[in-house]
Write a structure and sequence with these properties.
Helices cover about 30% and strands about 25% of the residues. It has about 140 residues and is an alpha+beta fold. The protein has a single domain, classed as 3-Layer(aba) Sandwich (Aminopeptidase). The protein has a five-stranded mixed beta sheet with strand order 1-2-3-4-5, sandwiched between helices. The mean pLDDT is about 95.
């Protein structure tokens, strides 16, 4: 397996993985490939985009879409999306992607990594295993119209 920087030409393969990860009973999403591609292209187009893919035998098996987020005291990396093809989850691929982001943060001397995820899914345990913690001083809010 290799981890490399994400290229725009990787987006269709990443959209396929995103659909396979989230279109199920756990996440209850209904992504189409076209919407998933547009969604990921929005991140790719960000001026401070940070992205990586994991490949095996030239086949993309995971993706990470993030961006540098400017903050008053030191910028950080905000992970927008990270997904590993369902058959390969639990094999250390997500951890390898996070390690690549950590290298980026160290090189740029940034503050760290932030993200949001569904607390009812397995993801929080994965992130906690990788050194993340819940920030009690932060809440996620939404307003549906």
């Amino acid at each position: 397996m290799i981890i490399r920087e994400l290229k725009e030409t990787d987006i269709p393969a990443c959209a396929d993985i995103l659909c396979s990860v989230y279109n199920n009973e756990l996440w209850m999403c209904r992504w189409t490939k076209a919407v998933a591609e547009n969604y990921l292209r929005d991140f790719f187009g960000h001026s401070k985009f940070v992205g990586y893919v994991a490949e095996e035998d030239s086949v993309i098996i995971a993706g990470l879409f993030a961006h540098e987020k400017i903050w008053w005291n030191n910028s950080e990396v905000f992970i927008e999306e990270m997904f590993v093809t369902p058959e390969r989850q639990g094999c250390g691929i997500g951890t390898a992607l996070l390690k690549e982001v950590e290298k980026y943060i160290e090189e740029k001397q940034l503050a760290g990594i932030t993200l949001s995820t569904n607390k009812y899914a397995p993801a929080p345990k994965f992130y906690e295993k990788n050194g993340f913690m819940c920030c009690e001083h932060v809440i996620f809010m939404a307003k549906e119209l």
